Structures are given as C-alpha cells and as structure tokens.
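Quick question, first post here. What does this chain look like in 3D?
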Amino acid sequence: MNNLDSSLQAHNKLEKETTNLVLLKDRVDKYHDLSTQMSSILTIFEKRLGNLEQTILPVYQETEQLQKRQQNLEATLNCLENVLSHYDVSQEVCQLIHQGPIEGSIGTFLDALAKLRAAMDYFLHNNSQSVELENVTSLFNNGCEGLNQHYSMLLKKHSAPLKPVELLDLIYIEDDSSSDEFTSFRQLSQSTREELFTISHWLEQNMREYTHIYATERGEVVLRSLQLLKDHQKSSSWGTEALRPRHSGRQNEPKKNTSARLQQIFEKKANKLYLRATQTIEQSTGFSIKKASSHTDHLTSEDLLDGDQELDKYLVMLLGLQRLLNWERAIMRDIIPQSKHNEVFARLAYNAIDLVVKDADAITQRILRCISRKEWTSALGIFSALKRVILLQPDIERTYDAAQREQLTKVLNKLQQTGAKALEHFLDVVKGESSTNIVGQSNVPKDATVHELTSNTIWFLEHLYEHFDVIGSILAQDVLYSTQLDTILMKKALPGEERNKALLAIYIKKALAELNLSIMNKCEQYNDQATKHLFRLNNIHYILKSLQRSNLIDLVTLAEPECEHSYLEMIRELKTSYQKTWSKMLSGIYSLEELPKPVGGKVKDKDRSVLKERFSNFNKDFEEACKIQRGISIPDVILREGIKRDNVEHILPNYNRFFEMYAGVQFSKNPDKYVKYRPHEINAMLSKLFDDSA
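> Answer (accepted):
Ran it through. Tokens below.
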C-alpha cells in the first residue's frame, strides 16, 4: 500500500514538472522572437541615424561658419564705431572742455577727458602724424589746465585763513581734548573734499602736476592765519583776551591772561610727559615712581605769569603753527593720495615755519638788546620760553617731518644761544662793576646800604633756580663748567637732575665770587673806614640771608660746601674790623695807667692839659663818628641792633671808667666844655646811630 502511494506521488510530481518545462520552452521561444524583432528595429534605426548624420552635418558646419562671420562682422563694426568715435570726440566734447568743469558735476568733465585720453592713445599708436592727434592732444591739455584751474578755484573758494579768535580757540580746544568742537573748524565741506579727492587722484593717475597748487593754496591759509594772529597780538586786548575759550559750556570760566593760559597748556603737556615716562618705567622695571618736585612745579610762580609778553606771544604763535599744521594734515588725508603726503606737507608748511623761525631770530635779538641794558627779566623770559619749547618737542616730533624738525631746531638753538649769552653777559656785568670806579664819580649809596648790584644779582640768581634744568643743559655745553662738574662727580655721584643743579651751583658760585669782589672794590669809594666796613657788612649779610631764605645756600653747597661758613666768617671779620674803627677814639681813654692819678680831686697843673686834650679828642672823634654813622643805613633789624649792642659793649665800659675817674677832677675852670657827655648820654647817642632822622 505504501509503495502504491509513493508511486502515485512521483507520477504527479513528474507531470507537474513536465508541464512547467513545456511552459518554459514556450516562453523562451517568445523571447527569441522578440529579440529578433528588436534587433531588426535597431538595425533599421542605426541606418536611419547614419543617413540623418550625413544629411545634418554639412548644415551644422555651414551654420557655424555663418556664426563666425557674424561675430567678425560685429567686432569689425564695433571697432569701426570706436575708431569713428575717436575721430568724433573732438567735436563731441569741445564745448564741454572750453566751458570747463562745474562744481558738483566733476564726473561729466572727467569722462570727457577720459575720451580724449583714449583718442590720444589710439592716434599715438596708429596714426601719430595725423591732425586728429594734434586736435585731441590740444583739447586734452586745455581740459587738464581747466581742471587745474577748477582745482585751484575750489581751494580758494572754500579756504580762508582762521580768524585770530578761532585759532586761539583751536589751541585751547586741542589741549582741552574737545574733539567734538574741533570739527567746527572744518572749512572744506565733505562734498568739496570728495570732489577735490576725485580730481587729485585723476591728476595723479594721469601724471599731471597738482601738488604745487594744493600746497600753495593751503600753505597760504596757514601763513595768513599766523599773520592775522600776529596783528591781533599787537592789539590792546591781547593780554586778557588771548586763549580765552569762546564756546558753549565755557562762558562761565574766568578770564585768564595769556601767560596764565599758556601756563595751563604747558602744565598739561608736562604732566602728560611725566605720566608717559612713569608708565614706561613701571612697565619695564615694575618699580612705582612717585612724582618729585621738578622745574614744572615752578612754572606757576607770579614772576613767570607776569613774564615777557613778547615771548608769550611767540609761544602762542608756535602753538598756533602746530595746531594749524595738524589741522592741515587731517584735511590733506581726505584729499591727497597717500604717496604724495610728505611732499605736499613739506611745501605747505615751509613758509609758515620760516616765518616762525625768523620771528624767533627777531625776538632773541630784541632780548639781547634788553639784556645789554641790564633788563634781566627778559633773560628769565628766555629760560621760561626755552623750557616750554622743550615741552613742545614731542608734538614737534609727531607733527613735522625730518627737514621741518631740523628747521624748527633753529628756534631751540637760538633760544639756547641767547640763554647762554644772557648768563655770560650777567657775569660780565657783575665783573665789570668791580672795576668801575671813575675818578670824581661815586656809584655807591651814600647811606652805605645794600647796593643795587647786590640786590639785582641776588634777585636774578634766585629766579635762575626755577630754570635749573634748562640752564644746566646750557652750561653743560661749556667745557669750563663740564670740567668742574666732573670734579664734583669724582667726590659724589649725582643723578641727572642733580647734575643740572650742580652746574647751576657752579655758575652761582662764580657770580657770588664776582659780586664779592665788586663789593670790596666799591667800598673803597667811601672816605670813612667805618663806612667801608658797614657797606661791605650790609651787602655780605644781605647775600647770606637771601641765600638762606631762598634755599639757594643748599644749591650752592653742591659746588662750594663751605659757602655758608665762609659768609659767616666774613661777617664776623667785618664786625671785628668795624669795632676796630673806634680804636683811635678809645685810645686816649682806654689805658688809665698812662694817665695822671688824681689826688683829692686834683691833678698837677702840667697834667691838666693832658686831661683837656683827652676829653677834647674823645668828644671830637665821637661826635664826628656819630654824625657820619647816623646817616648810614642798616636795613636788617637784627644786624642793626646787634651792631648797636656791640658798640655799647665796646665803648661804654671804657668811657665809664674814664668818666668816673676824671669827671669830678678840677682840671679846668670850664669843665662843661670838656666833660660834655655823661655815660647815659653816650649810650643814647650810640642807640641813635644808623638813623638819619634822629
């Protein structure tokens, strides 16, 4: 049974596979027929495509050739039009060129010039002998000339010198860091600057000259601004009106004179320099620097605020020049190509700088004349101005190029030379006074008080200390002073600032030595010995007290450590010498042992004449001395009272002994004729010495 079932399953399976095989063969046949048909279709398509290619390819090639011909034709037409335009450009732009550029429409004119330039290039390379080249070249040159004239016209029209008050405000504003108000001084509007910029760059690209025009016009603005400021400085209102702010927000500030406002400006500069220096030192070393007293602290003294007005005016000119040129540099950046900045700025600034340099020469010549007349305030003004010019050096470094800095260095050199001449002339004057002793002519005070030369010398030396830094730099250039400084440095090391003080100390030492010699020589003009000593004593004492009061004694000690002791010793010796002038008067009453001894209130007849002579001589000498010395003045109270006390202590005890021994002796029928003064009267008369009203 099982075998039957297996055979049945196999038979069914065989039938099924046979059926599938028949179906497969049928489909294979169909696919074969389809492949044969497709192959036949593709063959036919290939043949037709080949036929189409043979038909279309000649057409395509012919079309491509036609397109090339068309492009060549168009290029030829364009070229012909371009060539024709070069021939027509003269007529096209002739009227515009002759009319010239119009402000605000410079682009149209520059386009016309560009066409002429292109025509010039075409004819130059293709037909250099043609009349058309001459026409377009002439028209182009006329156009460039017109452009230059327009350029100059724009600069003239929109440029004007600053009024003095505007320039003074410009000085004040820049130092007050008010950048918002700085823009109010812009003369050239933005549109004008843009037009000038366009013209400058076109002329630069076409190698046409324009820098001379710009430098001349803007240089004239700077020069005229300075000249107007000079004219304004001559007005009576200059001293109180100069450098006074005139903008909103500042009207409530009190008016300041020129020197005060200059002082404020230069103090700011000095503080900026100090701050920059300390920051550099602290960053590089890590050390914190505390501000020490320096020359800038002395700039606020009344003497400088009331200084030489001509120098103040010149410093304002110098500041004004710097501000104007900073202003011009800012304008130039908006107009002139970068490559031409240095050239234009050098031309622009030359005349203005030359004016300032020449003014410096004129002022220093005037000051030298003042110094020759012994007007020493002018000399101090030179040192103050020199100090301020030195403070301007960083601004000069930033503002000017090398040639201009060299030109302005003449100002600094001129001031230094004038300062050196002032110092030298002062010594010559003091030295010359020592030899001035014209026969029959006295130039010493009748009352033997402090001589004008002494007070003037001390006044000048006291004020020199305020400028020790610049004076030190001047003296350092003199080999005599530098050699003496080296001697001091061998004994004691000194920092930079102290070296300048030491150099000034050497100068003051020389001046005091010449002054002492002058005083010694002048005292010989007095006939009375006591007056000679009192004259020298007055002057030497005044010198010492002035040196002590002004602390100059500490400065002089750098060059002469024994200075104070030397003056004290001179004063002591002069007091001693003065007391010795009473010796002749006291010689007759000093030694009682040599005089006759009274017995019972009487002396011998032959001794009476001796006592009469001694009393008479004393009275005569004492009265004569009192008469002279009442007319002598000793201004210093302490010195005066001390000399009076010394006189009393020196004279009265001797006279007391003489008076007590002989006043009651009967040596004359008329004793009042000889015994004229009692001790208290001598004391009273001595107390009235040095008082002409007594």
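The mean pLDDT is 81.
The chain is about 75% helix and 0% strand.
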